Amino acid sequence: LNFPSESAALRRILGERVELATEARLPYLPVIAPNQSFHVRERYIEFEGGSGILYLAYYSFSVDPILEGQIVAIFQGLSDDGLTYISAAMPLDTNYLLDAVPENFDYTAFSAGYESYVQSIRVGLNEQPPSLFSPGLDALEAMFTSIVIVR
To answer: Does residue 33 have a pLDDT over 90?
Structure first.
């Protein structure tokens, strides 16, 4: 593994079975430049020959409205022997967020209330039924639990 910090973080999380929602940042390979602004709907996934985590995340460089197509479903897994790191990411349609920034949008007022805005988005995404996401969250979980590591 050429990314020791991410693999070490995933090993720690999987080994300790920490409360994923309380982690400030969850591992993600490949390492990307934008910050992981938040993560939601975190869960552990077990598959034959390993385990991992599945979560939704938003990555950003700036304070901007969070739009449809910007939330990403992320799976990070590790084989039981620690030799294989599995990373998958796919944008989701949440059926919850705006498609575009409204005309005459007041960025100054928006920036002042950004933390409350992000918290409301997090709550909304956590409360949204799994079937309203596209692809559906249950289907994603089924896909990742079907992984088989064979040596």
So the answer is: no
- Of 76, 58, 89, nearest in space to 7 by CA: 76
Q: What is the pLDDT of residues 53-79, one digit of tens each?
A: 999 999 998 899 999 999 999 999 999
CB 147 within 8 A of CB 47: yes
119-138 confidence digits (pLDDT tens): 999 999 999 999 999 999 99
Terminal-residue alpha carbon distance, the chain = 17
